[in-house]
Amino acid sequence: MAEQNDNKVTKIVGKQSILFANAPYILSGSSIAGKKEGDGPLGSFFDQIEEDPMCGGTTWEDAESRFMKRAAELAIEKAGLKSEDIRFLVGGDLLGQLIATSFGIVDLNIPIFGIYGACSTMGESMALGAMIIDGGYADKVVALTSSHFAGAEKQFRFPLAYGNQRPLSASWTVTGSGAVVIGSEKPAAKAKQNSADNGSIRIKGITVGKIVDYGLKDSMNMGACMAPAAYNTISQNLKDFNILPNYYDKIITGDLGYVGKDILIDLLKQDGFDISANHMDCGIEIFNKDIQDTHAGGSGCACSAITLTGYIFQKLRRHEWTRVLFVPTGALLSQVSFNEGNSVPGIAHGVVIEVS
Amino acid sequence: MAEQNDNKVTKIVGKQSILFANAPYILSGSSIAGKKEGDGPLGSFFDQIEEDPMCGGTTWEDAESRFMKRAAELAIEKAGLKSEDIRFLVGGDLLGQLIATSFGIVDLNIPIFGIYGACSTMGESMALGAMIIDGGYADKVVALTSSHFAGAEKQFRFPLAYGNQRPLSASWTVTGSGAVVIGSEKPAAKAKQNSADNGSIRIKGITVGKIVDYGLKDSMNMGACMAPAAYNTISQNLKDFNILPNYYDKIITGDLGYVGKDILIDLLKQDGFDISANHMDCGIEIFNKDIQDTHAGGSGCACSAITLTGYIFQKLRRHEWTRVLFVPTGALLSQVSFNEGNSVPGIAHGVVIEVS
């Protein structure tokens, strides 16, 4: 892949991928996590643990907006920047009409591209953000997303007060928000000091996801619904860039959980790709299922977002990993589509992140 | 603006705008309209009028998906292309979690960036689509959106069967879908014959919108809620490009309606810009309020989308207009945010479209 990158003209790679001529830099990342996430195995990696599920707000939606605002402000601060230095935001959330995002970022006064990719949103926002930077349309953008357990339960299933039982295949929506500042140039030494991030983490390429529908209808088993989309994106990434799974130190899906992980590995074997040795799923890593009662694993836009900004970036900064394929996965359903008996299609966007 | 375009490097213009180094071409546009829209003043301009509000489907959401699928397929066909020629889709709709889009385009098997900008979605999708083309990440993309009167009423207000009364400031959500094929090169002569479009319509630049919240809370008066966002985007477009309103033959907002139009014109006068002579609002044009009972005008993502692809493109092809600023306007609310007493912020994305 490195050799192809020497060609400054060809950005279109294979069927669904892009190789950046001037791979954008990750200037900083922020991770604001809820209490349960802070109690989980990755707790020590997050920038902030917010103990109050309302985050000082008055509704679940307001709380999520506050998480997102804090994530955006912290990422900008860690990069040694001010909000007026950020040309565009690219972001979204799980709630209908993106209200967590709208009310979360309005005070930042930055032009925004609102996006929706369900729990694949962090991948979509980083993919678009990297194109905006590499294309010369901005020198600094923020890609961000959020989710909230209580807001998501109310939006997609039942209000918490209803006390609905959850099957073992159900996942637990992560409460939190992650933001990434993407820039065209390596950060200055000063910014590096202020930030925990090493400026040499770059977005080398992306693989844009298709909507994949295997006809599954169980909104309580989203891992199975999303696995075919993750399979499509990962398989296409490997084919487009003509590489094998071991090119990456880790191939990291968003929130397939225990059920989806097995399906993904099986599906990729059909194409001759074995990722069992280097696959990781953020939904599996973020909670301890034995003591946190989180069933199939974590989910939600923030699951992959804060695992990326908290945990994965640290692994890259320490050069424990040097190349990862980050593949957040989204289940495309709404309360209406579910109640009308529709299937739950999936989508997954791949982001190639490397450190040098 | 033309002079600036000779500079192939500087794409960043002013605070919120981009000037494309290689202005992308509009290869085709399609407009699928509902019956009421077909009965309106612009009826003769639309490609297809679908008399069945269900579009052969079983639910309002399914109907909207069918409108969108038809718009996508027709735009691709009019450009003389097949779906496998389209590298990416950029699109979204008004429904929670974009279900009209997800189920509408899944069969096209094209990688997609799902976006949400409320009724500004056509502007956002064309802005991102043009960046993807100008940046060299694709040679052909489709930007598209849809809305449906009955689906939107159910989503944002009350199901139709409830028979809710509508105040005079309320707008009427347009049923339909519009799609645009954007390409890096002028279409071949053959495609021109098949298509009604002249290949010399190009996207010269964009102005990305901020979320603007004046604190208005009336979801039945969305024109007033969105006017400040349209004001911000139009004023910034004129400042960023250092032009006066008469640079454009038309400055075209999406769905401000009669109430919002007056507010917009007043707000722009504060900045010394008088657009009263060349302003047009798609929501005002699309219905005849005296005989169609549509109160403040049309709204919904499809309002500006089909007015663009049906009417505005024809004006440009005939060179009756040569430069327009297309500014779809979105009201950022959900049923939840409204019921929780939140304000209704607005957003507007500007697209500079010129014919040569």
Automatic annotation (TrEMBL), chains A, B:
Pfam families: SpoVAD
Superkingdom: Bacteria
SUPFAM superfamilies, alphabetized: Thiolase-like
Example of a GO MF term: acyltransferase activity
InterPro entries: SpoVAD, SpoVAD_sf, Thiolase-like
NCBIfam families named among the record's database cross-references: PRK08304.1, spore_V_AD
Protein's name in the database: Stage V sporulation protein AD
Name of the gene this protein is made from: spoVAD
